[in-house]
Amino acid sequence: MTTTYWAEHAWLGSHVEPGVAIDADPADGRIAAVRTEVTAPPPGAVTLRGLTLPGLANAHSHAFHRALRGAVQIGSGTFWTWRDTMYGVADKLTPDRYFALARATYAEMALAGVTCVGEFHYLHHAPGGTPYDDPNAMGEALLAAAAEAGIRITLLDTAYLSAGFGEPPNRHQLRFSDGSADAWAERADALKGCGHARIGAAVHSVRAVPAAQLATVAAWAADRDAPLHVHLSEQTAENDACRAAHGVTPTRLLADHGVLGPRTTAVHATHLTDEDIALLGGSSTGTCMCPTTERDLADGIGPAAALQRAGSPLSLGSDSHAVIDLLEEARAMELDERLRTRTRGHWTAAALLRAATADGHAALGWSDAGRIEPGALADLTTVALDSVRTAGPHPRLGAETAVFAATNADVRHTVVGGRHVVRDGVHQLVEDVAGALADSIAALRS
Description:
Elements: E1 3-11, E2 16-25, E3 30-35, E4 46-54, E5 56-61, H1 79-90, H2 95-111, E6 114-121, H3 137-149, E7 152-159, H4 181-188, E8 197-203, H5 211-223, E9 228-232, H6 236-246, H7 250-256, E10 264-268, H8 274-282, E11 286-289, H9 291-296, H10 304-310, E12 314-316, H11 326-341, H12 349-356, H13 358-363, E13 380-383, H14 398-404, E14 411-416, E15 419-423, E16 426-427, H15 433-442
Parallel strand pairs: 1-4, 5-6, 6-7, 7-8, 8-9, 9-10, 10-11, 11-12
Antiparallel strand pairs: 1-2, 2-3, 4-13, 13-14, 14-15, 15-16
């Protein structure tokens, strides 16, 4: 039986439309029909008060980093000192502990309007690098966690083979490494997608996968028409080390080994040359910006506007989960560019929403999501227009209000595949999300 959602206002990709009825077919989880000029809720319809958007795509996540929130805000340091603290959390995770933490983290995402997450997953093995009885136990825990939290996931199984150029993994990184790209591919082959899950690949970075093995990972993704992601030039130290080892930038190294292309997304891309930007844009390689993490880790401000002008589609991610708020990520991309250039208006609200919806989903291999139209997946996010942050503007400015004023606290409803996962700000599948977060993080302190 079709479920009808009546959106008080809906963003339809180019404008805000009042009174939109969205029929969702539970059999396939897709939108069967979209009707406009519906001035009142039809009989039996579920009312969505506020502005309804396509579901938000969080294109870059490390679920276990959620345990670092607050704990890494003491004292000073750099990305590299932050990384030492992150390793301490990774050392304590087991499949069961990871499931509990990821389930709670993904439930927090659902409360923030996220309907699909790209999980950049490199924590594969037991401490010391010994495989679990199920070599994909950690990845399977993430897939199960997303299912219980009610959201979609693209598991970006990550090749992480070295500590740096010519350096073996350190004692923490042994958990990440399969030893070779061929061994990584053999393990990743056993992962299977399902209704809520798709499998992709990732190169952790050019420092973590030897140049001679990059093509193996790229070919694995190409053979499966799967998304391929890579951390790129987040730190100037990576650029310097790559030039010292190979005489080229990380972007050029990836291009020379067949990693770039329309299915590939470069994450961060903070410190690029003009040639790097041209290589990424000219190959239609996407870029995932993670502004809240990039400012939290003092990475810098990436050339997002220049990348998009060059032809690189933009997506957004909450990465280390300093906060989980895709509206803030969208807002921050524009506001950071204003700080960098001292001019305003680099993206419209509609363009920023596309990065958070359709383009984010495309980066994760869900090209059938991120739009409110017949045939698309019935994934919706509704943002209140009557909170203390959003009250006042005319509803036709709903997109501008959502991007430049709303926060995750203003998300009222999240629908995934036609199922009401968050209703009136309450998660319908995970009871007491805050408690689940507190308990799963406390378990890592023991």
